[in-house]
Write a structure and sequence with these properties.
64% of the residues lie in helices and 8% in strands. The chain is mainly alpha-helical and 184 residues long.
């Protein structure tokens, strides 16, 4: 499979970014290939396109399946498994956020709740208060996420656009810029 320069550049960048996002380079590149693919790809197609070993591709696909980021497809008269990504970008973003929350935020929040329920020594009173403050902030953020997750995509996009418009009304210090009305 020949990849255009555009596709190669995107795939290589996704691989580099993968390590910064907590996934390995191979997983990032496999996902990028599937994301750009015109049709679902089987493991053999991925091996041919990226030059990875079959075992690395299989492990990458299992990782992507565990994150719910790829979809399994079957073709008539073909026993191989084919993979694709969701067409809806918002579905991908929501899945990523949900998976990161399950893997990173929820365990941290559980630990902060446990620590907040302890009775600290006098020497740890300030640390205990900071832990409680962090727990409250993360709980507030997760409630906000839960509220946003209930929005339909169209309403979420509208909300984001409203935020962008509001951002243009705020100066660098976060103060609202007065709107000057002209006389008509």
């Amino acid at each position: 499979m020949n990849l255009s320069a555009l596709r190669q550049d995107f795939i290589l960048h996704f691989g580099e970014m993968g390590s910064r996002w907590g996934i390995n380079r191979t997983v990032g590149q496999v996902y990028a290939l599937l994301f750009l693919a015109d049709d679902p790809l089987c493991a053999d197609d991925i091996v041919a396109a990226l030059g990875f070993s079959r075992s690395n591709v299989s492990m990458a696909l299992k990782e992507l399946q565990s994150w719910n980021l790829v979809r399994l497809r079957h073709k008539t008269d073909d026993r191989r498994e084919f993979f694709t990504t969701p067409d809806d970008l918002w579905e991908i973003v929501r899945t990523l956020i949900d998976q990161r929350r399950k893997r990173e935020i929820d365990p941290t929040l559980t630990k902060l709740r446990e620590l907040s329920m302890t009775t600290p020594d006098a020497a740890d009173a300030a640390a205990h208060a900071r832990i409680a403050e962090l727990r409250e902030l993360i709980e507030q953020m997760t409630r906000f996420h839960d509220d946003l997750a209930r929005f339909e995509t169209e309403r979420l996009v509208a909300l984001l656009n409203m935020g962008a418009k509001l951002g243009r009304l705020v100066d660098g210090a976060g103060r609202l810029i007065p709107i000057r009305r002209t006389k008509t």
